[in-house]
Amino acid sequence: MTKIFARLMKDESGATAIEYGLIAALISVALITGATALGNSLNETFTTLGTKLTTEVNK
């Protein structure tokens, strides 16, 4: 039984898979955050542009 436990303690393949999963999760969070910020910025830009165009057309 101690040999099996010792072998499991040395096996790091599961730890590597978990690390890759954590890295993928962090990259996903960063991409979502960046896309949200960019989307909000674009929304503000187009809203401002639309308002200016509407004002100029209605003069």
Kindly describe this structure.
The structure is a single chain. By secondary structure, this protein is mainly α. It has one domain. The chain has 2 helices and no strands. It has helices at 2-10, 13-57. The chain is rod-shaped. The model has no long low-confidence stretch (mean pLDDT 87). InterPro entries: Flp_Fap. It comes from Shinella granuli. This is Pilus assembly protein Flp/PilA. Keywords: Membrane, Transmembrane, Transmembrane helix.
Record keyword descriptors for this entry.
Flp_Fap; 2 helices; membrane; transmembrane; Pilus assembly protein Flp/PilA; 92% helix; transmembrane helix; rod-shaped; 59 residues; mainly alpha
Question: Helix and strand layout, with pairings?
Answer:
Elements: H1 2-10, H2 13-57
Structure, briefly:
Keywords: Membrane, Transmembrane, Transmembrane helix. The protein is mostly helical and about 60 residues long.
What proportion strand? under 5%
In round numbers, the mean pLDDT is 87
Helix content: over 70%
Count of helical regions: 2
> Which segments are poorly predicted (pLDDT under 50) over 5 or more consecutive residues?
none
- Evaluate the radius of gyration: 26 Å
Number of domains: 1
Largest sheet: none
Termini distance?
A: 87 Å
Alpha-beta classification: mainly alpha
Based on Cα principal axes, name the global outline. Answer: rod-shaped
Order of helices and strands: HH
Number of strands: 0
Keywords: Membrane, Transmembrane, Transmembrane helix
Transmembrane segments: 20-39
Protein name: Pilus assembly protein Flp/PilA
